[in-house]
Amino acid sequence: MAEPARERLLVIGGDAAGMSAASQARRRRGPDELEIVALERGSFTSYSACGIPYYVGGVVADADALIARTPAEFRERGIDVRLGREAVEIDPDRGRVRVRELDGGAERWEGYDHLMVATGAVPSRPDLPGADAAGVHGVQVLGDGIEIRRELEARAPRRAVVVGGGYIGLEMAEALVMRGVEVTLVDGAEQPMRTLDPDMGALVADALRGVGVRLRLGERVEGFDTEGGRVTAVRASGGVLPADLVILGLGVRPDSALADAAGIPVGPTGGIVTDRRMRTGAERVWAAGDCVETRHLVSGGPVAIALGTHANKQGRVAGINLGGGYATFPGVVGTAVSKICKVEVARTGLNEAEAAAAGFAALSATVQSTTRAGYHPGATAMRTKLVAERRTGRLLGAQIVGEEGAAKRVDGLAIALWNGMTVEEMTGLDLGYAPPFSPVWDPVLIAARKTAERIEEDMRGTAP
Ligand SMILES: Cc1cc2nc3c(=O)[nH]c(=O)nc-3n(C[C@H](O)[C@H](O)[C@H](O)COP(=O)(O)OP(=O)(O)OC[C@H]3O[C@@H](n4cnc5c(N)ncnc54)[C@H](O)[C@@H]3O)c2cc1C
Fold this sequence. Notes:
Layout (H helix, E strand, L loop, with lengths): L6 E6 L3 H13 L5 E7 L11 H6 L13 H6 L2 E5 L1 E7 L4 E6 L5 E5 L2 E4 L3 E3 L12 E3 L3 H14 L3 E5 L3 H12 L3 E6 L10 H13 L3 E4 L3 E7 L2 E7 L2 E4 L2 E4 L3 E3 L2 H5 L23 E3 L6 E2 L6 E2 L4 H15 L13 E5 L2 E7 L2 H6 L4 E9 L10 E9 L5 E8 L7 H9 L4 H4 L16 H17 L5
Parallel strand pairs: 1-2, 1-7, 2-3, 7-18, 9-16, 10-11, 10-16, 11-12
Antiparallel strand pairs: 4-5, 5-6, 8-17, 13-14, 14-15, 19-20, 21-22, 22-25, 23-24, 24-25
Helix pairs in contact: 1-8
Flavin-adenine dinucleotide binds next to helix 1, strand 2, helix 2, strand 4 and helix 8.
């Protein structure tokens, strides 16, 4: 009997999604059955971008610690990683990708039987004068983190401006504060962390001010002053902010341009559309990670949420399927955690504005409680807000701001959300209790109780 022909999997993007897919496919199909080639235009594979702020701040001493697996380790497993190679065109009809060598510019076509697109996200960069000056940094890939830390160590900047108050802006502000840099954070919105409702975002603003970060909220950045090609100040709508270092944290969008140009369907969020098995609309082309859109399990709509947790899971699902197995990615509920120095921030599901936009009639309740029994040393205040559907009482979302031990309580809430629980049902959840971990009524239970009361009052028409 003739040997089955060896197939070829080409992966574009050598980080979380791409290499999870490659690794899973390799586990299921050996090199005799499946050749795996991964193209990465950068210099690293499988690194933790999530760790960059902690490397910049000095919590993580060495950039190597952020690398989960090197190209050499992948090669040992029969995955041919090629660094400095950029995919510049996908030709799905002929099953091939045009690849450019970044040192030299030579180009060649590489054929595939299966293609995995894992190109990640593109960070927003303002098209403003001076935005490309030295000292203005985006934070997207490990190389950015290495450059920022090098600059901190070599130039000891005194003043930094962080543009954008999302979680990356927040974490980078923390890193700079830890380095003793004076930090100003500029954001066009009236609050940092727009993924939270304004009342919870205000607590994050307080936390930033509490560690000495100056906030310029509701201000637009209009340009960057430079001297000898280096940034010296940020021009904001409210005035000029002197800066030796600027960090851009303006959000990202899916890097779907290659796929789009090849006619692979892209959805309303700009992310590549896939089915649950991570197959795109083109035959034998798969996609995962920040470059795809997925389904929000509460709103039901498509979302592009750039998080490593999704990239790894989706990559794994694609890899299992590519390896001949069966796996699906069900969607997300939008859970995220972050911190600014001592203050932890978490959210899951929909905030009030998102719930309204998704068509839910919602109400909310917010409770102030403590992370541990009030009498236990180390108990600190935390605020928990739940958003629930009127009448049914179905949990729609949750937000938490508090100190150590607060944020990860969101995981229980995410599970409740995932399972479509009502706040009334949640009041009976069997959560762990001992004084060093929580008050006898865990903040999640108190919040569920308060929200259930509000639902009941609302039903009786007595809600305030
Ligand atoms: C500072 C920071 C902190 C973060 N913190 C968290 C966190 O705490 N929790 C969390 O869940 N997520 C976090 N994230 C997000 C997380 O890092 C990303 O969601 C995750 O890395 C996405 O993985 P990916 O494989 O889809 O894309 P990426 O990690 O962006 O990898 C895509 C890779 O593809 C390569 N590539 C792109 N186009 C081409 C091409 N044409 N040819 C060849 N190679 C190409 C890129 O060089 C890149 O290496 C953070 C991100 C940053 C930047």
